[in-house]
Amino acid sequence: MKQFIIALTLIIASFTQNAFAGPIRIKDLVEFDGVRGNDLIGYGLVVGLNGTGDGIRNAPFTEEIMSNLLERLGVNITGEQFRPKNVAAVFVTAALPPFARAGSQIDVTVSAIGDAKSLLGGTLIMTPLNAADGQIYAVGQGTIIAGGASVEGDGASVVQGVPTAGVIPAGARVEREIDFDFASLKTLRLALRTPDFTTAGRIETALNKAFGRPVALMLDAGTVQLDITETRAASPAHALGRVENIEVEPQRKARVVVDQRSGTIVMGEDVRISRVAVSQGNLTLRISETPEVVQPNPFATGETVVVPRTTAGLEEEEGTGLAEIQGGTSLSEVIQGLNALGVSPRDMIDILKSIKAAGALHAEFVVR
Protein backbone atom coordinates (compact mmCIF):
# COMPACT_ATOMS: atom_id res chain seq x y z
CA MET A 1 0.00 0.00 0.00
CA LYS A 2 2.80 2.42 0.86
CA GLN A 3 4.62 1.66 -2.38
CA PHE A 4 1.42 2.29 -4.36
CA ILE A 5 0.81 5.66 -2.69
CA ILE A 6 4.46 6.74 -3.00
CA ALA A 7 4.75 5.82 -6.70
CA LEU A 8 1.43 7.44 -7.57
CA THR A 9 2.27 10.58 -5.60
CA LEU A 10 5.66 10.97 -7.28
CA ILE A 11 4.18 10.65 -10.75
CA ILE A 12 1.33 13.05 -10.00
CA ALA A 13 3.77 15.58 -8.60
CA SER A 14 5.90 15.41 -11.75
CA PHE A 15 3.07 16.87 -13.84
CA THR A 16 2.08 20.39 -12.83
CA GLN A 17 0.98 22.04 -16.05
CA ASN A 18 -2.00 21.42 -18.28
CA ALA A 19 -1.27 21.16 -22.01
CA PHE A 20 -3.65 22.86 -24.43
CA ALA A 21 -4.14 22.41 -28.15
CA GLY A 22 -2.10 24.80 -30.23
CA PRO A 23 -3.59 27.17 -32.79
CA ILE A 24 -5.43 25.35 -35.59
CA ARG A 25 -6.37 26.73 -38.98
CA ILE A 26 -10.05 27.48 -39.44
CA LYS A 27 -10.12 25.23 -42.52
CA ASP A 28 -9.33 22.28 -40.23
CA LEU A 29 -12.11 23.15 -37.76
CA VAL A 30 -15.12 23.96 -39.95
CA GLU A 31 -16.99 23.00 -43.09
CA PHE A 32 -18.01 25.84 -45.42
CA ASP A 33 -21.71 25.88 -46.29
CA GLY A 34 -22.16 24.66 -49.86
CA VAL A 35 -18.56 23.51 -50.26
CA ARG A 36 -19.21 19.79 -50.06
CA GLY A 37 -18.94 16.60 -52.04
CA ASN A 38 -21.70 14.32 -53.33
CA ASP A 39 -21.88 10.54 -53.22
CA LEU A 40 -22.28 8.58 -56.45
CA ILE A 41 -23.26 4.96 -57.02
CA GLY A 42 -23.55 2.69 -60.01
CA TYR A 43 -24.14 -0.93 -60.95
CA GLY A 44 -21.87 -2.56 -63.49
CA LEU A 45 -19.86 -5.55 -64.62
CA VAL A 46 -16.26 -6.62 -64.17
CA VAL A 47 -14.87 -8.83 -66.93
CA GLY A 48 -11.57 -10.59 -67.58
CA LEU A 49 -11.51 -12.56 -64.33
CA ASN A 50 -9.57 -15.81 -64.25
CA GLY A 51 -12.51 -18.09 -63.51
CA THR A 52 -13.29 -16.29 -60.24
CA GLY A 53 -16.49 -14.56 -61.35
CA ASP A 54 -20.10 -15.02 -60.26
CA GLY A 55 -21.83 -18.36 -60.42
CA ILE A 56 -24.76 -17.61 -62.73
CA ARG A 57 -27.13 -19.89 -60.80
CA ASN A 58 -26.43 -18.00 -57.58
CA ALA A 59 -26.33 -14.55 -59.24
CA PRO A 60 -28.87 -14.50 -62.10
CA PHE A 61 -28.72 -10.70 -62.27
CA THR A 62 -25.18 -11.01 -63.66
CA GLU A 63 -26.46 -12.96 -66.66
CA GLU A 64 -29.28 -10.46 -67.18
CA ILE A 65 -27.10 -7.36 -67.26
CA MET A 66 -24.52 -9.17 -69.43
CA SER A 67 -27.23 -10.07 -71.94
CA ASN A 68 -28.53 -6.49 -72.02
CA LEU A 69 -25.00 -5.16 -72.54
CA LEU A 70 -24.29 -7.52 -75.42
CA GLU A 71 -27.63 -6.71 -77.08
CA ARG A 72 -26.81 -2.97 -76.92
CA LEU A 73 -23.55 -3.80 -78.67
CA GLY A 74 -25.41 -5.68 -81.41
CA VAL A 75 -24.88 -9.24 -80.19
CA ASN A 76 -28.08 -11.28 -79.91
CA ILE A 77 -27.82 -14.15 -77.42
CA THR A 78 -31.56 -14.76 -76.90
CA GLY A 79 -32.16 -18.43 -76.13
CA GLU A 80 -28.46 -19.21 -75.86
CA GLN A 81 -26.86 -20.96 -72.90
CA PHE A 82 -24.65 -18.21 -71.54
CA ARG A 83 -22.59 -19.35 -68.54
CA PRO A 84 -19.45 -17.19 -68.26
CA LYS A 85 -17.15 -17.63 -65.24
CA ASN A 86 -15.07 -14.54 -65.87
CA VAL A 87 -17.78 -11.95 -65.17
CA ALA A 88 -18.87 -10.45 -61.84
CA ALA A 89 -21.61 -7.98 -60.93
CA VAL A 90 -20.36 -5.09 -58.81
CA PHE A 91 -21.42 -1.89 -57.10
CA VAL A 92 -19.31 1.12 -58.02
CA THR A 93 -19.13 4.02 -55.56
CA ALA A 94 -17.36 7.36 -55.71
CA ALA A 95 -17.39 10.83 -54.16
CA LEU A 96 -17.85 13.82 -56.44
CA PRO A 97 -15.64 16.55 -54.90
CA PRO A 98 -16.83 20.15 -54.66
CA PHE A 99 -16.32 22.30 -57.75
CA ALA A 100 -15.57 19.24 -59.91
CA ARG A 101 -15.68 20.23 -63.56
CA ALA A 102 -16.70 18.19 -66.59
CA GLY A 103 -13.78 16.16 -67.84
CA SER A 104 -11.96 15.86 -64.51
CA GLN A 105 -11.28 12.38 -63.12
CA ILE A 106 -12.13 10.89 -59.71
CA ASP A 107 -11.32 7.63 -57.93
CA VAL A 108 -13.89 4.85 -57.68
CA THR A 109 -14.34 1.83 -55.42
CA VAL A 110 -15.57 -1.47 -56.85
CA SER A 111 -17.22 -4.14 -54.66
CA ALA A 112 -18.62 -7.53 -55.69
CA ILE A 113 -22.27 -8.18 -54.84
CA GLY A 114 -22.52 -11.80 -56.04
CA ASP A 115 -20.49 -14.87 -55.14
CA ALA A 116 -17.38 -13.89 -57.07
CA LYS A 117 -14.23 -15.13 -55.36
CA SER A 118 -11.86 -12.43 -56.55
CA LEU A 119 -11.75 -9.27 -58.69
CA LEU A 120 -7.99 -9.48 -59.26
CA GLY A 121 -7.07 -8.65 -62.82
CA GLY A 122 -10.61 -7.62 -63.76
CA THR A 123 -11.71 -4.65 -65.83
CA LEU A 124 -14.75 -2.55 -65.04
CA ILE A 125 -16.95 -1.97 -68.09
CA MET A 126 -18.31 1.55 -68.65
CA THR A 127 -20.64 2.18 -65.70
CA PRO A 128 -22.83 5.28 -65.21
CA LEU A 129 -22.66 6.75 -61.69
CA ASN A 130 -25.81 8.38 -60.32
CA ALA A 131 -26.34 10.84 -57.48
CA ALA A 132 -29.29 10.96 -55.08
CA ASP A 133 -31.33 12.91 -57.64
CA GLY A 134 -31.05 10.05 -60.16
CA GLN A 135 -28.94 12.04 -62.62
CA ILE A 136 -25.72 10.67 -64.12
CA TYR A 137 -22.73 12.74 -63.01
CA ALA A 138 -19.80 10.48 -63.93
CA VAL A 139 -18.91 7.35 -65.89
CA GLY A 140 -16.47 4.76 -64.53
CA GLN A 141 -14.23 2.34 -66.39
CA GLY A 142 -10.78 0.84 -65.97
CA THR A 143 -8.62 -1.90 -64.50
CA ILE A 144 -9.24 -2.81 -60.87
CA ILE A 145 -6.50 -2.79 -58.26
CA ALA A 146 -7.65 -5.30 -55.63
CA GLY A 147 -6.20 -5.35 -52.14
CA GLY A 148 -6.04 -9.07 -51.46
CA ALA A 149 -5.11 -12.49 -52.79
CA SER A 150 -6.96 -15.78 -53.08
CA VAL A 151 -5.44 -19.23 -53.69
CA GLU A 152 -7.58 -22.36 -53.95
CA GLY A 153 -6.81 -26.03 -54.46
CA ASP A 154 -8.77 -29.27 -54.41
CA GLY A 155 -8.54 -29.68 -50.67
CA ALA A 156 -7.83 -26.25 -49.23
CA SER A 157 -8.00 -22.54 -49.93
CA VAL A 158 -6.23 -19.48 -48.55
CA VAL A 159 -7.58 -15.91 -48.68
CA GLN A 160 -5.57 -12.90 -47.62
CA GLY A 161 -7.12 -9.44 -47.46
CA VAL A 162 -10.34 -8.71 -49.37
CA PRO A 163 -9.94 -9.73 -53.03
CA THR A 164 -13.63 -9.04 -53.74
CA ALA A 165 -13.18 -5.26 -53.46
CA GLY A 166 -10.78 -2.87 -55.11
CA VAL A 167 -10.21 0.63 -56.40
CA ILE A 168 -9.60 2.30 -59.75
CA PRO A 169 -7.49 5.44 -59.35
CA ALA A 170 -8.90 8.18 -61.60
CA GLY A 171 -11.33 5.54 -62.81
CA ALA A 172 -14.33 7.81 -63.48
CA ARG A 173 -14.69 10.90 -65.60
CA VAL A 174 -17.05 13.69 -64.56
CA GLU A 175 -19.77 14.27 -67.16
CA ARG A 176 -22.06 16.71 -65.34
CA GLU A 177 -21.32 19.59 -62.98
CA ILE A 178 -23.21 20.50 -59.82
CA ASP A 179 -25.25 23.67 -60.26
CA PHE A 180 -23.93 25.98 -57.52
CA ASP A 181 -23.36 29.70 -58.08
CA PHE A 182 -20.69 30.21 -55.46
CA ALA A 183 -19.58 33.59 -56.82
CA SER A 184 -22.96 35.21 -56.07
CA LEU A 185 -23.01 34.40 -52.34
CA LYS A 186 -23.43 37.33 -49.99
CA THR A 187 -23.18 35.42 -46.72
CA LEU A 188 -21.60 32.08 -45.86
CA ARG A 189 -22.01 29.86 -42.84
CA LEU A 190 -19.08 28.09 -41.20
CA ALA A 191 -20.20 24.79 -39.63
CA LEU A 192 -17.95 23.55 -36.83
CA ARG A 193 -17.07 19.85 -37.06
CA THR A 194 -17.20 19.69 -33.25
CA PRO A 195 -19.78 22.21 -32.00
CA ASP A 196 -18.58 24.26 -29.05
CA PHE A 197 -19.65 27.73 -27.92
CA THR A 198 -16.15 28.73 -26.84
CA THR A 199 -14.55 27.66 -30.12
CA ALA A 200 -17.28 29.37 -32.17
CA GLY A 201 -16.77 32.56 -30.17
CA ARG A 202 -13.02 32.45 -30.76
CA ILE A 203 -13.57 32.00 -34.50
CA GLU A 204 -15.89 35.04 -34.51
CA THR A 205 -13.32 37.12 -32.65
CA ALA A 206 -10.44 35.98 -34.89
CA LEU A 207 -12.33 36.80 -38.09
CA ASN A 208 -13.41 40.24 -36.92
CA LYS A 209 -9.86 41.00 -35.80
CA ALA A 210 -8.31 39.79 -39.06
CA PHE A 211 -10.58 41.94 -41.25
CA GLY A 212 -10.64 44.91 -38.87
CA ARG A 213 -14.42 45.14 -38.88
CA PRO A 214 -17.44 43.02 -37.75
CA VAL A 215 -17.68 40.47 -40.56
CA ALA A 216 -18.57 37.36 -38.49
CA LEU A 217 -21.40 36.53 -36.10
CA MET A 218 -21.74 33.40 -33.97
CA LEU A 219 -25.24 31.98 -34.46
CA ASP A 220 -24.93 28.95 -32.18
CA ALA A 221 -22.37 26.43 -30.92
CA GLY A 222 -21.91 24.95 -34.38
CA THR A 223 -22.40 27.89 -36.77
CA VAL A 224 -20.59 31.15 -37.47
CA GLN A 225 -22.01 33.39 -40.19
CA LEU A 226 -19.60 35.32 -42.41
CA ASP A 227 -20.76 38.46 -44.22
CA ILE A 228 -18.76 38.30 -47.45
CA THR A 229 -19.75 41.79 -48.56
CA GLU A 230 -18.15 43.27 -45.43
CA THR A 231 -14.84 41.53 -46.12
CA ARG A 232 -14.37 43.80 -49.16
CA ALA A 233 -12.80 40.91 -51.03
CA ALA A 234 -12.86 40.67 -54.82
CA SER A 235 -14.99 37.49 -54.66
CA PRO A 236 -16.21 34.92 -52.13
CA ALA A 237 -13.32 32.69 -53.19
CA HIS A 238 -10.80 35.39 -52.26
CA ALA A 239 -12.55 35.90 -48.91
CA LEU A 240 -12.47 32.19 -48.03
CA GLY A 241 -8.88 31.91 -49.18
CA ARG A 242 -8.02 34.37 -46.44
CA VAL A 243 -10.45 33.03 -43.85
CA GLU A 244 -9.40 29.38 -43.95
CA ASN A 245 -5.78 30.12 -43.00
CA ILE A 246 -6.62 32.19 -39.88
CA GLU A 247 -5.54 30.24 -36.79
CA VAL A 248 -7.77 29.67 -33.75
CA GLU A 249 -7.12 27.77 -30.54
CA PRO A 250 -10.09 25.35 -30.18
CA GLN A 251 -11.64 24.33 -26.89
CA ARG A 252 -12.10 20.61 -26.40
CA LYS A 253 -14.72 18.84 -24.34
CA ALA A 254 -13.42 16.63 -21.56
CA ARG A 255 -13.90 13.08 -22.81
CA VAL A 256 -12.55 9.60 -22.10
CA VAL A 257 -12.96 6.87 -24.73
CA VAL A 258 -12.18 3.24 -23.89
CA ASP A 259 -12.29 0.12 -26.06
CA GLN A 260 -12.84 -2.96 -23.92
CA ARG A 261 -11.91 -5.41 -26.69
CA SER A 262 -8.44 -4.03 -27.32
CA GLY A 263 -7.86 -2.36 -23.95
CA THR A 264 -7.33 1.05 -25.58
CA ILE A 265 -7.79 4.23 -23.52
CA VAL A 266 -7.91 7.66 -25.17
CA MET A 267 -8.41 10.82 -23.15
CA GLY A 268 -8.05 14.57 -23.30
CA GLU A 269 -5.57 16.47 -21.17
CA ASP A 270 -8.34 18.57 -19.64
CA VAL A 271 -10.00 15.59 -17.92
CA ARG A 272 -9.98 16.02 -14.14
CA ILE A 273 -10.59 13.73 -11.16
CA SER A 274 -11.84 14.81 -7.77
CA ARG A 275 -10.45 13.44 -4.54
CA VAL A 276 -11.25 9.73 -4.36
CA ALA A 277 -9.88 6.51 -2.84
CA VAL A 278 -9.21 3.44 -5.03
CA SER A 279 -8.68 -0.18 -4.01
CA GLN A 280 -8.22 -2.95 -6.54
CA GLY A 281 -7.53 -6.68 -6.23
CA ASN A 282 -7.77 -9.86 -8.33
CA LEU A 283 -9.40 -13.24 -7.90
CA THR A 284 -7.68 -16.35 -9.34
CA LEU A 285 -9.68 -19.51 -9.95
CA ARG A 286 -7.62 -22.68 -10.38
CA ILE A 287 -9.14 -25.97 -11.60
CA SER A 288 -7.09 -29.12 -12.27
CA GLU A 289 -8.19 -32.53 -13.57
CA THR A 290 -6.31 -35.68 -12.41
CA PRO A 291 -8.38 -38.72 -13.49
CA GLU A 292 -7.56 -42.03 -11.79
CA VAL A 293 -7.84 -45.55 -13.10
CA VAL A 294 -9.71 -47.91 -10.72
CA GLN A 295 -9.36 -51.68 -11.17
CA PRO A 296 -11.35 -54.45 -9.44
CA ASN A 297 -9.66 -56.71 -6.88
CA PRO A 298 -8.05 -59.92 -8.11
CA PHE A 299 -10.55 -62.67 -8.95
CA ALA A 300 -13.40 -60.19 -8.40
CA THR A 301 -16.12 -59.41 -10.92
CA GLY A 302 -16.12 -55.96 -12.46
CA GLU A 303 -14.28 -53.85 -15.00
CA THR A 304 -11.62 -51.19 -15.07
CA VAL A 305 -13.02 -47.64 -15.07
CA VAL A 306 -11.59 -44.12 -15.11
CA VAL A 307 -12.77 -42.02 -12.16
CA PRO A 308 -12.58 -38.20 -12.51
CA ARG A 309 -10.71 -36.30 -9.83
CA THR A 310 -11.16 -32.51 -9.86
CA THR A 311 -9.36 -30.03 -7.64
CA ALA A 312 -10.78 -26.48 -7.50
CA GLY A 313 -9.47 -23.52 -5.58
CA LEU A 314 -10.21 -19.80 -5.37
CA GLU A 315 -7.38 -17.47 -4.47
CA GLU A 316 -7.59 -13.76 -3.89
CA GLU A 317 -4.36 -11.95 -4.61
CA GLU A 318 -3.29 -9.41 -2.10
CA GLY A 319 -4.48 -6.03 -3.38
CA THR A 320 -2.46 -2.89 -3.72
CA GLY A 321 -4.36 -1.36 -0.86
CA LEU A 322 -6.44 1.77 -0.65
CA ALA A 323 -4.86 4.65 -2.56
CA GLU A 324 -6.04 8.21 -2.30
CA ILE A 325 -6.05 10.46 -5.37
CA GLN A 326 -5.93 14.16 -4.59
CA GLY A 327 -8.55 16.49 -6.05
CA GLY A 328 -7.74 18.32 -9.28
CA THR A 329 -5.49 15.54 -10.56
CA SER A 330 -5.56 15.06 -14.34
CA LEU A 331 -6.52 11.65 -15.66
CA SER A 332 -3.31 11.35 -17.65
CA GLU A 333 -1.34 11.62 -14.41
CA VAL A 334 -3.41 8.84 -12.85
CA ILE A 335 -2.89 6.64 -15.91
CA GLN A 336 0.85 7.26 -15.71
CA GLY A 337 0.81 6.13 -12.10
CA LEU A 338 -1.22 3.00 -12.81
CA ASN A 339 1.06 2.09 -15.71
CA ALA A 340 4.10 2.44 -13.49
CA LEU A 341 2.55 -0.06 -11.08
CA GLY A 342 1.91 -2.59 -13.84
CA VAL A 343 -1.89 -2.38 -13.85
CA SER A 344 -3.26 -4.09 -16.97
CA PRO A 345 -5.35 -2.02 -19.45
CA ARG A 346 -8.53 -3.99 -18.71
CA ASP A 347 -8.13 -3.49 -14.95
CA MET A 348 -7.46 0.17 -15.65
CA ILE A 349 -10.74 0.43 -17.57
CA ASP A 350 -12.60 -1.12 -14.63
CA ILE A 351 -10.97 1.37 -12.27
CA LEU A 352 -12.00 4.29 -14.50
CA LYS A 353 -15.57 2.97 -14.65
CA SER A 354 -15.69 2.83 -10.87
CA ILE A 355 -14.27 6.35 -10.54
CA LYS A 356 -16.90 7.61 -12.98
CA ALA A 357 -19.68 5.80 -11.09
CA ALA A 358 -18.46 7.43 -7.88
CA GLY A 359 -18.91 10.84 -9.50
CA ALA A 360 -15.22 11.71 -9.26
CA LEU A 361 -14.38 11.58 -13.00
CA HIS A 362 -15.38 14.91 -14.54
CA ALA A 363 -15.60 14.02 -18.21
CA GLU A 364 -17.81 12.30 -20.73
CA PHE A 365 -17.10 8.57 -20.51
CA VAL A 366 -17.52 6.70 -23.81
CA VAL A 367 -17.25 2.89 -23.95
CA ARG A 368 -16.80 1.24 -27.33
TrEMBL record:
Alphabetically sorted, this entry's keywords are: Bacterial flagellum, Cell projection, Cilium, Flagellum, Periplasm, Signal
Question: Does this UniProt record's set of keywords contain Cell cycle?
Answer: no
Signal sequence extent: 1-21
* Molecular function terms, GO-annotated: structural molecule activity
Q: Which domain of life is it from?
A: Bacteria
Q: Which InterPro entries match?
A: Flag_FlgI
Q: Name one GO cellular component term.
A: outer membrane-bounded periplasmic space
Q: Which family does it belong to?
A: Belongs to the FlgI family.
Per its database record, what is this protein's job? Assembles around the rod to form the L-ring and probably protects the motor/basal body from shearing forces during rotation.
Q: How does it assemble?
A: The basal body constitutes a major portion of the flagellar organelle and consists of four rings (L,P,S, and M) mounted on a central rod.
Specify the protein name.
Flagellar P-ring protein
